């Protein structure tokens, strides 16, 4: 249980960091890039969560 | 990337690799494992059977004190659960990476041994060159009779034992991987080493007699039953020949002479063979036979019948002549050649007839030659080799050349 | 996006050959036997010839394209939208490749050495290597492969040479194996072993345009020789009935090496070779995942993408293993993998037809 929490925390941190990169990219006049990076970040959060919770 | 950062990354990579990849999680100390050298399978009753494990005692092998082997027998109804039981009893994880032999009793061999071997073969530790042995007196008895006196390492004892048999007739086809392949496919059939008690072998050394006396005294003190150790020591196991299988069921045996001829046909190793001296039938002549490279075997399927042509070109180095005859003389050498040819021709034809008509088992691998005449696997499988093999006709030609007298 | 980094033809060739070699280490020889039986060795011969023909056509078309990669060509053909579509398709393709191979390599190592470890633990080890490779960049991986891949291949060749005493010519019969039709079908399906042509056409800007022909043909030739030799040696050691069930073919071959008392249990070398091959393979593929994604979206930085992408690859790998489907051996997945050859061909044909070479040079200066 604790291990799962640690893993999810690490993943969440990476997601937040990536989303911030996405926002920075959006602000640098690359809207599509910003959206795709955010999408990647959210997938990077969703997949491990799905594995840890459901599989 | 700055130099400092690069150096730090490099150091971290090396440190992490050393720590994580050295496999500490999977660490296996010798003391934590039970190295099984021999596995024996006997029938107990209708549903159960006994598993015998001969394990090496590493401490004793290294230190030289105490028994170098430990033999335990377990009763079980399932091979896989028997392995687990042994592991629990021995208080160590069973490791099969040094297993040298798998011994099955004749009873089990006749019923089929695939269930046991399937249970074992998934274990990647098990080497493909493990020898399969059929023991007529039972696997447990065979394993208990193996007492490595000249070698402290039981694994080495087996390795040297089989190496010494190579000069007789032992063939590679009795190893696990070959056995599994042959037992599962309807073509070449497997063989295994066949052992039985050899009453001509007895241990009459002083040390052995002292051991007998000591064990008698010990058992008297413990109040246990006195066992007739001297008689037991005489019952040494010896290789009697080969067990012939059809798929995974034993259908017959070959005696030592037949096994020798079998190995002559199927392998390229030198073989020692003795025949009655043609010039003096009181004595024998021992020769070392080498099969020439120009020997060949051709098999074709014609009208649903296999036609097998065997041409054997053999060179014989005369090693020992009990009589005073000098086989360096051309006329005498020619007589010896004829004698060898006659002996071999008779013996091989009898062997071929036995395996073909009686046992109906292609242990020679003629199917490997026969399939050359088919274009596709489908056609070959349609020919149904196992069914047509008993109809085989042989054409055997033997040419012996006496090279020299040692 | 102009590339300031570059490497030579040898680095590029060894990188690409390793991508094919990974397949040899995992499943290729066994798949050939399953498809073709005793004539399975004919399939890599046919595949190599088809791949050579494919490359001959594409390199000819490249005369009208110049030094552009697939994304640049797509940009010239259909503008940014088309480039994004192609780029994302290639990214997804490479991510799936990386995740499937990550799972396969991890499972191989687990079966052979680390049997008590969990699969996820083994995958994390490879993931760490893959991620580190991404941080160092494509050039680093290419240069490492320049000296490691030859060593790995020599190790593999020594293993196959060492089992020559176990070769049985009878194993090659019946000569046509499962039949000509099955062999041709197998060749079509397993052409996917050359799916990494997509990486060759993404690597073009890293080396000079004049070297494309040399790199491509060297890649096809060396890969072909390795594919044929690995299949041939596997069939010669194991009869086809037995070979079809043998997992990790190169490891199984190595187990048969036995020279006296000193050279025994050499299969540990195959583990080392497999691990090095895996790290270079995963590092290279993952590098290109990041590179393609960044280039597709015109991103100024690509390093922040490494960690989330690594998590996605790892997660997909875990999911694929839980699904218990043989992605590497299945015919349908192999046909889908042909996308790695079909997609570049389509783009190059359109690009050559539109003569994007001159227009592209103007745009990318």
From TrEMBL, chain A:
Record flagged with keyword Transmembrane helix: yes
Organism field: Ruminiclostridium sufflavum DSM 19573
Domain of life of the organism encoding this protein: Bacteria
Regions crossing the membrane: 6-26, 33-53
Keywords: Membrane, Transmembrane, Transmembrane helix
Protein name from the UniProt record: Uncharacterized protein
From TrEMBL, chain B:
InterPro entries: GerAC_N (IPR057336), Spore_GerAC-like (IPR008844), Spore_GerAC-like_C (IPR046953), Spore_GerAC_C_sf (IPR038501)
Localisation per UniProt entry: Membrane
Membrane topology: Lipid-anchor
Region (Disordered): 204-233
Bias (Basic and acidic residues): 207-233
Signal peptide (UniProt feature, chain positions): 1-18
One cellular component (GO) term of this entry: membrane
GO biological-process terms attached to the record: spore germination
Keywords: Germination, Lipoprotein, Membrane, Palmitate, Signal
Source organism superkingdom: Bacteria
Pfam families in alphabetical order: Spore_GerAC, Spore_GerAC_N
Residues annotated as domain Spore germination protein N-terminal: 26-194
Domain Spore germination GerAC-like C-terminal: 240-404
Keyword S-adenosyl-L-methionine set for record: no
PANTHER family referenced in this protein's UniProt entry, alphabetically: SPORE GERMINATION PROTEIN B3
Family (UniProt): Belongs to the GerABKC lipoprotein family.
Name of the protein described by the UniProt record: Spore germination protein KC
UniProtKB/TrEMBL annotation, chain C:
Keyword Membrane: yes
Signal peptide region: none
InterPro entries named among the record's database cross-references: Spore_GerAB
Membrane topology note: Multi-pass membrane protein
Pfam families: Spore_permease (PF03845)
Top-level taxonomic group: Bacteria
Any one GO BP annotation for this protein: spore germination
Sequence intervals crossing the membrane: 12-29, 41-63, 84-104, 124-142, 147-167, 187-207, 219-240, 269-293, 305-323, 335-353
UniProt keywords, alphabetically: Germination, Membrane, Transmembrane, Transmembrane helix, Transport
Gene Ontology CC annotation, any one: membrane
Compartments where found: Membrane
PANTHER family found in the cross-reference section: SPORE GERMINATION PROTEIN A2
Protein family membership: Belongs to the amino acid-polyamine-organocation (APC) superfamily. Spore germination protein (SGP) (TC 2.A.3.9) family.
Protein name: Spore germination protein (Amino acid permease)
Lineage summary: Bacteria, Bacillati, Bacillota, Clostridia, Eubacteriales
């Amino acid at each position: 249980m604790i291990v799962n929490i640690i893993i999810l925390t690490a993943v969440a941190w990476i997601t937040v960091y990536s989303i911030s990169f996405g926002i920075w990219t959006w602000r640098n006049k690359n809207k599509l890039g910003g959206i795709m990076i955010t999408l990647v970040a959210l997938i990077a959060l969703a997949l491990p969560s799905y594995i840890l919770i459901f599989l | 990337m700055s130099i400092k950062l690069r150096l730090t990354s490099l150091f971290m990579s090396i440190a992490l690799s050393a720590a994580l990849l050295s496999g500490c999680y999977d660490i296996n100390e010798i003391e934590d494992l039970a190295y099984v050298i021999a596995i024996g399978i006997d029938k107990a009753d209708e549903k159960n059977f006994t598993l015998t494990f001969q394990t090496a005692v590493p401490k004793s092998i290294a230190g030289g004190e105490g028994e170098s082997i430990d033999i335990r027998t377990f009763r079980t109804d399932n091979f896989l659960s028997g392995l687990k039981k042994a592991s629990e009893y021995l208080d160590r994880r069973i490791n099969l990476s040094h297993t040298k032999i798998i011994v099955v009793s004749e009873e089990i061999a006749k019923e089929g041994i695939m269930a046991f071997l399937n249970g074992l073969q998934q274990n990647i530790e098990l080497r493909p060159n493990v020898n399969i042995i059929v023991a007529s007196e039972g696997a447990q008895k065979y394993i208990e009779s193996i007492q490595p006196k000249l070698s402290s390492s039981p694994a080495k004892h087996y390795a040297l034992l089989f190496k010494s048999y190579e000069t007789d007739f032992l063939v590679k086809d009795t190893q696990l991987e070959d056995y599994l392949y042959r037992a599962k496919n309807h073509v070449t059939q497997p063989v295994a080493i066949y052992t039985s008690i050899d009453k001509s072998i007895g241990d009459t050394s002083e040390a052995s007699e002292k051991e007998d006396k000591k064990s008698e005294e010990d058992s008297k003190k413990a109040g246990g039953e006195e066992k007739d150790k001297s008689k037991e020591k005489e019952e040494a196991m010896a290789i009697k020949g080969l067990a012939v299988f059809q798929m995974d069921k034993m259908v017959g045996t070959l005696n030592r002479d037949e096994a020798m001829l079998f190995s002559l046909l199927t392998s390229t190793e030198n073989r020692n063979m003795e025949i009655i001296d043609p010039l003096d039938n009181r004595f024998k002549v021992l020769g070392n036979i080498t099969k020439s490279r120009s020997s060949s075997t051709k098999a074709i399927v014609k009208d649903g019948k296999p036609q097998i042509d065997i041409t054997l070109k053999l060179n014989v180095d005369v090693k020992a002549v009990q009589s005073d005859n000098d086989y360096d003389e051309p006329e005498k050498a020619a007589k010896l050649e004829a004698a060898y040819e006659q002996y071999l021709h008779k013996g091989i034809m009898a062997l071929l007839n036995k395996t073909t008509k009686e046992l109906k088992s292609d242990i020679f691998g003629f199917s490997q030659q026969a399939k050359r005449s088919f274009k596709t696997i489908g056609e070959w499988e349609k020919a149904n080799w196992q069914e047509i093999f008993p109809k085989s006709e042989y054409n055997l030609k033997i040419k012996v050349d006496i090279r020299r007298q040692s | 996006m102009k590339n300031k980094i570059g490497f030579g033809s040898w680095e590029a060739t060894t990188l690409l050959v390793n991508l094919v070699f990974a397949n040899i280490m995992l499943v290729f020889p066994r798949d050939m036997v399953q498809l073709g039986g005793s004539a399975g060795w004919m399939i890599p011969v046919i595949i190599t010839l088809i791949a050579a023909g494919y490359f001959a056509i594409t390199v000819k078309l490249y005369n009208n394209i110049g030094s552009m990669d697939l994304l640049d060509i797509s940009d010239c053909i259909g503008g940014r939208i088309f480039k994004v579509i192609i780029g994302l398709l290639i990214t997804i393709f490479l991510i799936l490749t990386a995740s499937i191979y990550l799972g396969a390599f991890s499972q191989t190592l687990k079966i052979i050495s680390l049997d008590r470890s969990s699969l996820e633990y083994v995958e994390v080890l490879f993931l760490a290597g893959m991620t580190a490779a991404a941080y160092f960049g494509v050039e680093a991986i290419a240069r490492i492969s320049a000296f490691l891949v030859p060593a790995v291949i020599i190790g593999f060749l020594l293993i196959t040479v060492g089992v020559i005493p176990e070769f049985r010519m009878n194993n090659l019969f019946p000569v046509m194996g499962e039949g000509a039709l099955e062999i041709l079908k197998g060749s079509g399906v397993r052409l996917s072993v050359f799916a990494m042509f997509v990486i060759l056409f993404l690597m073009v800007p890293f080396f000079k345009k004049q070297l494309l022909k040399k790199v491509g043909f060297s890649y096809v030739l060396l890969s072909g020789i390795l594919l044929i030799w690995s299949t041939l040696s596997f069939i010669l050691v194991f009869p086809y009935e037995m070979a079809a069930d043998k997992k990790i073919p190169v490891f199984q071959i190595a187990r048969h090496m036995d020279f006296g008392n000193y050279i025994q249990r050499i299969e540990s070398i195959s583990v080392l070779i497999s691990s090095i091959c895996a790290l270079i393979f995963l590092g290279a593929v993952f590098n290109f995942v990041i590179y393609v994604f960044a280039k597709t979206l015109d991103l100024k930085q690509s390093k922040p993408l490494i960690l989330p992408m690594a998590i996605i690859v790892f997660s997909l790998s875990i999911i694929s293993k839980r699904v218990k489907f043989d992605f590497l051996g299945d015919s349908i997945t192999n046909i889908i993998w042909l996308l790695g050859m079909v997609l570049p061909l389509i783009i190059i044909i359109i690009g050559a037809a539109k003569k994007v070479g001159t227009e592209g040079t103007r745009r990318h200066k």
